[in-house]
Amino acid sequence: MRYSRIKKRLLWAVIILTVAAILAGAVFFYQRQRGEKGDLLSEHGNRKETVNLWYTDDALTDYLSSKALEFYENTDIRVVVRLVSGLEYLEAVNAASLDDGIDTPDLYILSNDSLEKAYLAGLATQLPDTAPVYEEQLFPQSARDAVQYNGKYVACPMYFETSALLYNKTYLQQIADEAEQLIPASIVDILTYADQYSTPENVEYFFRWDVSDIFYNYFFIGNYISVGGAAGDDKSLIDIYNTESVSSLKVYQEMNQFFSIDTKETNYDTIMQEFQEGKTIYTIATSDCIRRLDEAARNGAFGYEYGIAKLPDINQELATRGMSVTNALVINGYSEHKEAAGRLMEYLIRDANADLYDMTGKLSSVIRDTYASEHEAAFMENYMESVPIPKMLETGNFWVELEICFAKVWGGEDANAQLRKLSEQIRTQLAGEAVAEEPIEDPQVELLPAVEYEEGTGELDVTPEA
Questions:
Q1: Can you tell me the distance from the alpha carbon of 184 to that of 282, in angstroms, rounded to the nearest whole number?
Q2: What is the pLDDT of residues 152-168, one digit of tens each?
Q3: In angstroms, rounded to a whole number, what is the distance separating the alpha carbons of residues 9 and 15?
Q4: What pTM did the predictor assign?
């Protein structure tokens, strides 16, 4: 009996000790969890609010990381910058937003042609009227049009890309007393200069550009076509097939008589390499040419001065207009930190854009009183007059089809017929039913002189038509 009582006491003692151990462990686990939660709150809660910033271009990494640190030091708001693959980028933004976790992108960088898709998916929201984009003096109208959708500003312009005329300034100084005399205002000027002046010995191509890429071809008809109006979002404003656009495309076709550029053997990189080697006087380039040529000059691989000018018109009657892409800052409609994201947006636009080009090679969309170089200022001038790439989902294939149209016309097919076919295709896509364009009488274009051009010699023998 006594042994039985002792056994029961020992059993109770074991039970009590076990329960005590469990309680102690539970308390320890709770305190640990509480401590971790406290740390988490200090990082992501009200004490240290966090904004997630997403982007796709690695060239921005150092810049965004440094600006995130500066922003934190000024506001005590943490910024987590994340480089994300450009493939299915919006899908990744959407998936992270629907997860409702701490990794939801609050602010992200997006090209303006994807803004309709982002807005309709709830991944972009109308900016408050305090956002920088509302200030007309801060951005050119082309930048503000680029980020407008359905009459609302749904993003803020950050940086841009467009095309301009690139020329070898050293050669022009050799050809004429003042290089400025030979900065062409039109394609006709280029042909006239080629007839009037002898080219330096090393020159093989007077005017040469990437005819296979619509970004460098678009300016030929950019002033006379519209896909969605100024903001590129109005399905009722489609004007592709008209007398001026056909005339301009016919002139483009004529250019193949003077400059036999093989679309299969040339691309932008080869064109730029030829320019760098001093083989070309004039070409069409994007803003990356500045850093490329400056670095080549520092390395001794480019021994010339160069200049950037406005895209040349065709002649006195037919004007040109280039295309532009604007990369913008977008506030995620699913973000729980919209106010903080808006503060970061404003900081990147107002206070942190001065060294954007130096750190990234990207040209800021903000208009500056002074520029570090005349080349940057020249690209801004072209950007101001450019056409923003449209953002309508239904016309997402327009640029591919336009590029095909240009390629066929360059190869000799009828410009009138090809442009009419393209217009009918795009209108049909938007209307959801077949649309037929009324044929335009083929304009008689006699804008350029008859020429004989020997490719690879730089010689262009221009004989005016009788």
A1: 9
A2: 999 999 999 999 999 99
A3: 10
A4: 0.86
